[in-house]
Design a protein that fits this description.
Alpha-Beta Plaits; 2 domains; Arc Repressor Mutant, subunit A; 39% helix
């Protein structure tokens, strides 16, 4: 499915305002309601919209720590990658994980109550014998810019 400028505008508005009404969305992108809703349904059906979520303020919920963890595996077989990826799926504290090309194999984002609970998680992963050879922890001291949708203009044309 090829996206046009209006489709991209729908995605852009929804990325920042997921609770916007369909009528307001139609008005914001300059379409009447029916064509806008049809585009929205088409985007959802095609998988461009994976879901609607709320951004939760962790700061308001209570103390927590965010740690980025660079991970190296002991070997680089398909089985090792599957074992590691399967194991981290079972840990809700791992809120993001990306396979990398280059020096490290993975970059994980971990959110826990405190450093002690972070260390317990790492100890569990080490004891699970999932091929975790080395890890490097980077504790977030302040959020400068939170994850957002990339600039949709790069997908136009």
């Amino acid at each position: 499915m090829k996206l046009d400028a209006r489709d991209l505008e729908i995605l852009k508005v929804l990325a920042s305002e997921g609770r916007i009404t369909k009528a307001e969305l139609a008005e914001r992108i300059g379409l009447s309601a029916s064509p806008c809703w049809e585009r929205l349904r088409r985007l959802e059906d095609a998988g461009f919209i994976e879901g609607y979520q709320a951004r939760i303020s962790l700061r308001k919920l209570g103390p927590h720590v965010t740690v980025f963890v660079a991970v190296e595996l002991s070997d680089h077989t398909a089985a090792s990658f599957r074992a590691f990826e399967g194991a981290i799926q079972r840990h809700g504290e791992v809120t993001g994980c990306w396979a990398l090309g280059g020096g490290f194999d993975y970059l994980m984002q971990v959110v826990t109550r405190d450093i002690e609970s972070y260390q317990r998680l790492i100890d569990e992963l080490l004891e699970a014998r999932i091929g975790l050879a080395r890890y490097f922890s980077y504790v977030v001291t302040k959020s400068v810019k939170s994850p957002q949708l990339p600039p949709l203009e790069i997908f136009a044309g």
